[in-house]
Records
---
Amino acid sequence: MNKLKLIIVLSIAILFSSCSEDKDTEPIIQTGNGFNYKGSFYSVDKAFIKDFNIIDNESSKIAIVLSNVNPSRTTPKWGGVNYFYFAFEGTNVIEGTITPVPEYSIRENADFENFSILAGNTILRHNDPRVSNIAISSSVNIKSISIDEIDLDFEFTRPDGEIITGSYKGTYE
């Protein structure tokens, strides 16, 4: 009878120890159109490219925006916006790596109103008064670009060691 109790107790202990949560595991990094931050994935399934100089072939600011909403097709106010913006000087978008990235903003759960991103959680922003929100390293790798599709990935590191990684592959406007 004592052996049976011992076997039952050991079986229960093994069952509970095998079902316990392992808190030392790394967060799962998802891939696809979006970015990873603190173990969460934020979808950005739309891309927009804006060249601020379409008159001639002079260098100017070029901005790329990835978002989960289309600013030209949304209602006047939209919440829950995931948003990645970066800009650089150039004559056009070409394959290659941009590092460091001179202008950037990454937000989640923001509001979109009158073509402006408001509120939400600012993950990074190049001109943020809070030093903790300014990247200590940044790179965007444009792997391919065609007349209507772009393939890129990016990585930004915050001063607190958090790394934001992401990618987008698909059409753009």
---
Amino acid sequence: MSDDSRLLIPALDGLYRTLAPVTETLVRLCAGLSLAAHGYPKLFGATAANAAFFEQAGFHPALFWTILTGLTEFGGGLCLALGLLTRLAALPVLVFLAVAIKFHAANGFYWNNLGFEYPLFWALVVLHFLVRGGGRFSLDRLIGREV
């Protein structure tokens, strides 16, 4: 921890220092793999069922939006998880999440009522990576290039 902060339980300082370098990577992995898991069935599984949902929700042509959303979630999610082209991948994911926020806003805030809480949370996470990049343990850092 920083010298100017005083821990309530000073014995935890070593644990915090040990975990600090990897927490951002863990959040990036979780966000990216969660997005990829949501995109996978749109592309490789229940494409027709997802297209029916997009049709019912007013997104026309529904198959186009299903595939575009699947590519954004699956491809963007994998790139985020790997920290590869992180900022470039984060932008379309953030646009997708902004649309999801708008779509779910009619149901209020809480996710258990299908509100916009969940996409808002993930949008803030993805915004972090758009602004900060992939971080210390990313392929972007390994190859020495970031957008």
